[in-house]
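fyi for ur records
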Amino acid sequence: MAIPGYNPGTYNGQTHGPVVLDWATWSGASTHKGPPARGDLCVWPGAGAGGHIGIATSGTQMISALDHIDGTKQTGITGFGPRGVAVIYRSLSGNSSGGVSAPGLGIPGCLIGLVLMPYQVVAVSGGHKVKNMLTGKFYSRRPQSKERAEEQLRALEAAEHSPGWRGHRARRAAR
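which gave:
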């Protein structure tokens, strides 16, 4: 996938990658007035802590990486970004995705392969399950102990760092 500052297929996820200001001006996406559609970038242009970026999951919700403690979570868009910075919405152009999409989610050319999936351990009746906060899918059929769910979460997150895992997901999504 082409992303700001990288040719398609050259970003390996081992470094931070493009910063918020790069996404705010990237030619692979166009700016529009809200509300955002699923898969649109929600960008608060600014340097460092003065900027933020998320991926819209609906017209009012987004996922984004918060910090090492909170991880990647789904939050509301309104009132979330840095104080005093207005959000802009950017739609990916068709040529930016390299054929990667998320069928069933209605997110053509999405950035799912670029960011860690937003997994979270959630309490359910009878125990805990690992949930993908973007898709709403659970990664276990039966409730389990919180410790077992956290172990499963760590395994899923570790698998996300494997280039083979991302390549498999991209090929499956492109079908």
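The chain has two domains: 1-115, 119-174. thats all i got for now
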